[in-house]
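Changelog-linked ticket: zinc ion example.
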Amino acid sequence: MTEEAQPEYVTYRVESNVAWVMLNRPQYSNAQNYRLLAQLDDAFRRAVEDDDVKVIVLGGEGKHFTAGHDIGTPEKDSHMERERVHLWPNHLTRGGAERQYVLEQDAYLGLCRRWQDIPKPTIAMVQGACIAGGLMLAWVCDLIIASDDAFFQDPTVRMAQPGVEYFAHAFELPPRVAKELLYLGRRMPAQRAYQFGMVNEIFPRETLREEVAKIAAEIAERNSFGLTLTKQAVNFVEDLRGKRQAMDGVFHMHHLAHAHNQLMTGNLVGGLDAKAMAAANKKQASEG
Ligand code: ZN
């Protein structure tokens, strides 16, 4: 954490053995800047260390779960030094392709893997938009419970990138559907994601929190260590299926794309800013 006072990008409260970790930038659709990710990591640590917490819910305040990484709000902070969680250097001291590589190794791939391995059950409570970097936060959770108006989208191919940094697409979805999600970058409604097992349950938005609380309460009754081992067992199987290695491989393709974009357009994401992405999305949504 830096010394200066920061906005509360993430809120934390414990109720009946459940930690409610909420992204708290609703005015920017909970866009994730690096300080938000640091606060999120702090919240998860707090939940892990609190013996009263049996289950962790990750949600977002406001209309949307999260619109992804911060690519254009006034508090975008990739120019600021961040506290690293793993043993990677300060990206600001690096040039060339190394700068973004060390940043994303720690802040995206590193944090997501760390959160996926939290030894307590985690539930993503998703309403509205879950876009790009938003998928990363939902996918690292054990269960995804969505509102009936939730949708999932990875439009990064528009930015000439092969998906977001945490490449779980082809594990979360059948390969052909993963390609469709990426090629077209369309919004996948919760109902369709449910058909592939990417979403566990769907509820009306008005009752989402209440229903998630009921499911969390039921899990909280189970033996904690039994839950930890169960989680590790399933994660272990996913890694045996190649998830970890595939993700490492694709992470390097992701950075080949960033470097290529930088050479071709002078910009990491093919010259597309937040405004251009939002306009493209809007056009696609109105046509679809
Ligand atoms: Zn990237």
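Closing comment: Example verified and attached. Residues 3-287 form a domain with the 2-enoyl-CoA Hydratase; Chain A, domain 1 fold (CATH 3.90.226.10). Residues 243-265 form the longest helix (23 residues).
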